Please model this.
Amino acid sequence: MTPQTPHLDVVTFGEAMAMFVAEEPGQLASVTHYRRALAGAEVNVAVALSRLGHRVGWLGRVGDDPLGKYAVSRIAAENVEVGAVVADPEAPTGFQLKSRTDGQGDPLVVYYRRDSAGSRLQPSPEADARLTSARHLHMTGIFPALSAQAGASAEHSLEVAGASGATISFDPNLRPSLWSDREKMVEVLNNLAIRSDWVLPGLAEGELLTGRTTPRGIADFYLERGVSLVAVKLGADGAALFTRDEEWWVPAFKVTVVDTVGAGDGFAAGLISGALNGLPLPARLERAAAVGAFATTSPGDMDGMPTEHALDAFLTEQRAAGHQGPERIESDRTTEPAARQDRTAPREQAANAEETMRALVPWPQIGELMGGWPSNLKVDIYDGEQAPPEDLSDVAFYVMPYAKGNAPRDLIPRMTGLRAVQSLSAGVEKLLPFITPGVVLSNGRGLHDASVAEHALALVLAAQRDLPRRVRDQDAHHWAPYFTRSLADTRVVIVGYGSIGAAIEQRLLACEAEVVRVASRRRPAEGVHGVAELPELLPHADIVILTLPESQATIRLMDDELLALLPDDALVVNVGRGRTLDSAALRAETTTGRLRAALDVTDPEPLPSDDPLWDCENVLITPHAGGGSATFYPRAERFVAEQLRRFAAGRPLLNVVTTTSA
Model:
């Protein structure tokens, strides 16, 4: 991968078309006013994923014409990477006309795409570099239908991404009118499907491709041929997800439908997003169904694709209105999920009626967020400051107050009936000795990503642009302009690349830095190096950012030998855990002035007032404040509300760190 190749979570390829949407209902021949928009199944998925906060690239070919320029600029405006897109001087950009339905049935779409530039897409080194760097490839059955060249390009892209270790999702997205032979269509698309990791057919598509008539039968067809996951879209009956070990169904969300086009693309984006965020299978399925439903509420193919904030709000509203989450499918059932829907509520109510459980949570407003506490939960409030309830023996679910010292942790042994503990910190190493057999422990993964990433970026920029000295000059009323270091064009090594590391990376890339990812183990498919490669990576680093959790493997991982490998004047930033950086070695390197440091965490903590690090002008220190921003509490409240819903309904919890057996 060249330095210019962007790090991508997802890459997709296909044809982008201009779309002209009728402004008034009626026959297209009589419509006089149209609104210009953008269309293309793969583009819809790319835009949806970008709005959900992922780094996405789109590969394609457009005409060197006004519609082509519009398409590329429109895609780029959605923060989708388009550096490998080709402008074809000899073929036009395709377009389509789309009728207005106002939610009354599916719109009529008329295509003008024969011999378009999109059908002439060919492999290129630039495209291959993106396919190799991405964690996931999404493809559809539309593009291979456009031409023999398009089919060959699809085959090539699948092979390149597969060889690099990326996961691959395939949405058949059948367009029989593009195929001259239905048998050929089935043969080609099934060949692509069984070489993918996930297959995402609609029920009718699955029946046509497999000859089987139930979601389970369709799933078995692909699972038996090596696919690891099959998600079957069931329209008004929701969606079902199958792996070799798990089966889940989610009912459809109730929304006011304006335009059904784009729902399947939203579903695919939601499923991919859930996987990238590390959600368990039922949560991925629910996210997929939610994005798909959201997409139908606006007239354009991609207009309704939500941001992460809008999606969270939508899910909160839907749950408050009584929407039921994913349900595990009993393995001996082979009937349609629609038939299961009638059995869901009574069974859940019966289970809920059997037992009332006690929960201890830090904020009373969670109940308002949930539209009222679940009927089978007795909820008490403990914020970590006032005295806790006297009797804690029957607390089943404990949400620990955040940043309140050791007192909340020390209550755990008094909870003899405990079933689950929810920590709001990402690191839980100090909790593990308190978790007894049979108790589920979940952490706050994802809640601090934005806060810590912002703080890490602030530390880097402050150190690079010498802001502490500027503040001292301001205090002295001293005007002293001079040139400083920059973040742009530097090489930054992130050690401990997880969700926080990915959030930091997004911000660094926006500042034109080059990012090198390092985690405990090497993950070539994601462009992640292993810690064993640090001796080869550090001599070429300008900045090192540590986001490591504390464990036996990470304590003093960044020791004197590794620090010595850094070039003179390199910056060491720690926003993870203080003990992952050898404090004595850091003092030796910084007090001599050879290295610089920016520390949000230290060892020990708090840092003693006589520690020499305080007096180093090349060291910037903040008091473990990375997670303390205004973004934390709203996100934490929404997350706790979701965990309580799951616990009350007997559904799997999110962010499970460990489940000890009794």
In short: The longest helix spans residues 337-354. Residues 253 and 318 are 7 Å apart (CA to CA). The two ends are 48 Å apart (CA to CA). The first strand starts at residue 10 and ends at 13.
